[in-house]
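User: Modeling request: complex.
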Amino acid sequence: MAILTCKDLRFSYDGSTVLEGVNFSLKAGNYLCIVGENGSGKSTLMKGLLGLKAPDAGQIEFGEGLKSTEIGYLPQQTQLQRDFPASVWEVVLSGCLNSLGRRLHYNAEDKKRAEVNIERMGIEELRDKSYQELSGGQQQRVLLARALCATKKMLLLDEPVTGLDPIATGEMYNLIKLVNLCDNITVIMVSHDIHAAARYATHILHLGQKQLFFGTAAQYRESDLARRFLGGNRL
Amino acid sequence: MSEFWHLFSFHFMQRALIVGGLISLCAALLGVSLVLKRYSMIGDGLSHVGFGALAIASALHVAPLAVAVPVVVLTAVLLLRLSQNGKIKGDAMIAIISSSALAIGVICVSVTTGMNTEVSSYMFGSVLSLSRADAILSGILSAAVLLLFVLFYPRLFAVTFDETFSKATGTRTELYNTLLAVLTAITVVLGMRMMGALLISSLIIFPALSAMRLCRSFKRVVICAACVSLACFVIGVIASYFLETPTGASVVAANLLCFCACCLIGKK
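Assistant: Request completed. Predicted assembly structure:
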């Protein structure tokens, strides 16, 4: 059974279509990379999946009891956040926001979940540090731990390695893959890094204001589109 | 020394310390969120609108707070909407609204009463301007602000830190932004009677900035800002009594000194 199905999705801003003809479906545990140039509709599709933007046509269906508010989202960082006075613990715990429901404050279960995810990301020793004092790679781990607090089933990552050095980038990709494999969490990642996408992902969705390709990473590597997009170099 | 304790036996002084203390607390708590969300200018804009509303109220001989509270609350909601969706961007919009409101207020004053002490007390504040009814209303409203802040603390933190994430996980961020704006509006109106329209925004901004020099976690920043705000207010009011300086200005001066001290300590 599919965890996510998109049927004939179309999105527009102020009446002009920015993305159309999106049709794909994912099973639990898949790792999808959404690639495409700037303005290809990647962020629009992501907003659609998160329920922040309604599609003009088509449907987004979640399976296996997933709701759009139960997706663990890792947004791109804003300048505002980089120097925000908050402890790592406070940031990770805020990922439990969607399980508050009618409660006003976090309970023991929420705190336990935050602890577990801090351990999972290997950032125990940073727990009481201030978010603004961390390196870029450490900040991304904190945000990934927060995203994991918000979900049991699906992660949505918006260019998670932007601005990271090669070592931190590699570590981040490995962590994401680990979560994907060990916990069977479906991963959807928007990325510019097509080489990493083809290496780590199980599926690729290539957008260019419409759906240019959807299939497994292996199929993508063989496609003409991938060759053209990579400037003639085969992966 | 006996003169010092004598100070607290005056009714107006007790009233000023209690009401002002509550307002300082509210301003500091809200200020942390506003400063971090880059909404500092909203407090400033709202105080000018408050001045306009108070001027009109005094021209019409109606209770000042009864006019100013709804007008400023409405403006706050409007400013928030406009800064998010409007064609004119946030800071420009605030400048337009605040200077227009100030202009209307000044015109209103000049054609009716002229620049009397009452109007001057709106601009620069006065501890004596608090009536008993004002004091009671201020007390109730600031208690409500404090309570709401404590109750919704986890959500307010999440919305302040990362609005997109909060929205994506199903939090009604507009609701909490509006809540912040409305609470700020109420605090500004209540505070401006004592602090003055031109000085109230410092009560919102200074404690948060001072606290951020010293503390590195959100909860500590909030608690530290509240303490700093309360301490600076009390010191400012007492200093103004002995030095015979205006209350609002003295409180701002105390905050400025505190901010400088925090910068020095924080650098080490």
